[in-house]
Amino acid sequence: RTAILGTGFRERRGVTVFPRPSRGPLLAYGPDALAGPVTGLRLLAEGAEDRGAPVPRLRHSVLAFSCLGHGFLSDEARDLFWRVFRVPVFGQILSPGCNVLAWECEAHEGYHFARDRVCFENGFRDSERELLATSLIDLRRPALRLATGLSGDIEERPCGCGEPGPRLVNLRRRAALKREAQLGTACAAD
Predict the structure, then answer these.
(1) DSSP states of 85-151 as a string?
(2) d(Cα 79, Cα 38) in Å, to the nearest integer?
(3) In what order do the strands lie in the sheet with 89-94?
(4) High-pLDDT (> 70) share of the chain, %
(5) Which of 91, 93, 99, 157 has the fewest CB atoms within 10 Å, i.e. the most exposed one?
(6) 143 and 96 in contact (C-beta within 8 Å)?
(7) Phi, psi values for residue 25, rounded to 5°
(8) 85 and 45 Cβ atoms separated by less than 8 Å
């Protein structure tokens, strides 16, 4: 049984969609796995860690969605989800229409993607590298060279899981890169 937090997803046998991360209905459902945007999962996890609010006792995994151009599963968020939910955490990058474009596997060596679903390329904005995504799988919301807000590399070598094909590796939020650069400059000036 999987609970998905958010809208834009279809329910089917064993999958229930919760438009808002409401604890009562979520606990009553008793999911084995939990999926949702990083922000919604963070609300649940921080409530549990900060105030002892109850969360479902999961048995399988947490899937943390990052929508193109909005949010990203940082190492800090991944650690928080692991501490609170105590199951493996996997990231997925979604298109504006909620289709999976890139996903993490058990090896956690980047995000796999299929070239027939999305094309990632490195572009530049404000003289910084930024991944751009083009995907036409969403008929109502196509993405043409959409700025992702992420910096990273495209790896062609097979993953540790054995899967060949491209992966996004060394992913970081551009804002985090900017802060790190500022900190590095401040430290160098001291």
Answers:
(1) H-S-EEEEEE-TTS-EEEEE-TT-SSEEE-TTT-EEEEEEETTEEEEEEEE---SSS-EEEEE-SEE
(2) 12
(3) 15-18, 2-5, 33-37, 62-67, 89-94, 100-104, 111-113, 167-173, 150-155
(4) 91
(5) 157
(6) yes
(7) -60, -35
(8) yes
CA distance 155 to 109: 10
Does residue 64 contact residue 90 with C-beta atoms inside 8 Å?
yes
What average pLDDT is seen over the chain?
Answer: 87
Token representation of residue 42: 């963070």
pLDDT tens profile 39-78: 999 999 999 998 989 999 999 999 999 987 667 898 999 9
Residue 46: φ, ψ to 5°: -65, -35
pTM: 0.84
Q: How far is Cα 44 from Cα 18, in angstroms, rounded to an integer?
A: 13
| Closest to 31 measured CA to CA, from 178, 39, 48, 21 | 21
Phi and psi of 41, rounded to 5°?
-65, -35
Backbone φ and ψ for 189, nearest 5 degrees, come out as -75, -25
pLDDT tens sequence across 140-170? 888 899 888 899 999 999 999 999 989 999 9
